Amino acid sequence: MSETVAPADNSAQDLVFVESCRLPTRWAEFQMHVFFEASTGKEHVALTLGQVNDGAPVLARIHSECLTGDALFSRRCDCGPQLELALQKIAEEGRGALLYLRQEGRGIGLLNKVRAYHLQDQGADTVEANQRLGFAADLRNYSLCEPMLKHLGISALRLMTNNPRKIAAMQGLRVTIAEHLPLIAGRNPHNDRYLDTKVAKLGHMIDSDGVI
Ligand SMILES: [Zn+2]
């Protein structure tokens, strides 16, 4: 089964819903939905739990892929613990959605992320490293969320994020942010400076104790 999901605007970007299946996890049995982005060849994922298409705001996490943090247990960032905590909170509520967007390394890809990590090993911070490689500090694009959420019947979110840019980006789409909730997890000695840089240069809402 496949179905073209209308793009968020009139751009060439298009997203095709492909299929859904059960995804049992440590926390709950989610429904997994896969989408194909024809313009980039990327495959994106949504996990849902419970009935999310009834119009009530849905507890949600919009998570950008981080291979090192999500799958390889890296402590250089806080992505893995945030992903786990988001799934746990959705499971506790018995209802929610997680969009997993394939935009590795704040949008610069894995190879360039490792190049940026190499520069950070030599003393650059995360923003300086990206800029030294010729990239903006954050290249992530959230416009895909709109057709994904529309396909899932979700019109309003209770969004778990510490990132005001993500909230602003979502408000620029036709998605209601009914509430935003902090998602604090995973500060450790290896990512202390990285998280402080996200606060100082990218406006993230985390204080030095890891609490807003
Ligand atoms: Zn990460």
Automatic annotation (TrEMBL):
Transmembrane segments: none annotated. It is an enzyme of class 3 (hydrolase). Pfam families: GTP_cyclohydro2. The active site is at D138 (proton acceptor), R140 (nucleophile). Residues 20-182 form the GTP cyclohydrolase II domain. One of its GO terms (biological process) is riboflavin biosynthetic process. It catalyses: GTP + 4 H2O = 2,5-diamino-6-hydroxy-4-(5-phosphoribosylamino)-pyrimidine + formate + 2 phosphate + 3 H(+). Keywords: GTP-binding, Hydrolase, Metal-binding, Nucleotide-binding, Riboflavin biosynthesis, Zinc. Its EC number is 3.5.4.25. It comes from the Bacteria. GTP binds at R61, I62, H63, S64, E65, Q82, E104, G105, R106, T126, T161, K166. Pathway: Cofactor biosynthesis; riboflavin biosynthesis; 5-amino-6-(D-ribitylamino)uracil from GTP: step 1/4. Its cofactor is Zn(2+). Zn(2+) binds at C66, C77, C79. Belongs to the GTP cyclohydrolase II family. This is GTP cyclohydrolase-2. It comes from Undibacterium rugosum.
